Amino acid sequence: MKLIDTLKAFVRDEEGAAALEYGLFAALIAAVIAATVGQIGDALEEAFDTVLKAID
After folding, report:
1. What is the dihedral of CA 33, 36, 38, 42, to 10 degrees?
2. Measured between alpha carbons, how far is residue 30 from residues 3, 14, 27, 33, 46 in Å?
């Protein structure tokens, strides 16, 4: 019976699930930031190329 009680307690424990959710949220936020920075970098490069061509 001790093993079954331990397994039931393990299934009911939600602390690990909360930590996993926070990790997934952090990964999602990091991916969004990386994509946004990439987009801004491309737009900035295009703007500088336009200025460079206007100067030449």
Report:
1. -160
2. 40, 25, 5, 5, 25
CA dihedral 43, 47, 53, 56 (to 10 degrees): -140
Concatenated DSSP letters for 6-56? HHHHHHH--HHHHHHHHHHHHHHHHHHHHHHHHHHHHHHHHHHHHHHHHH-
HSE at residue 33, side-chain half, CA atoms within 13 A, is 6
pLDDT tens, the chain, 56 aa long: 688 888 787 777 766 667 788 889 999 999 999 999 988 988 899 999 999 999 98
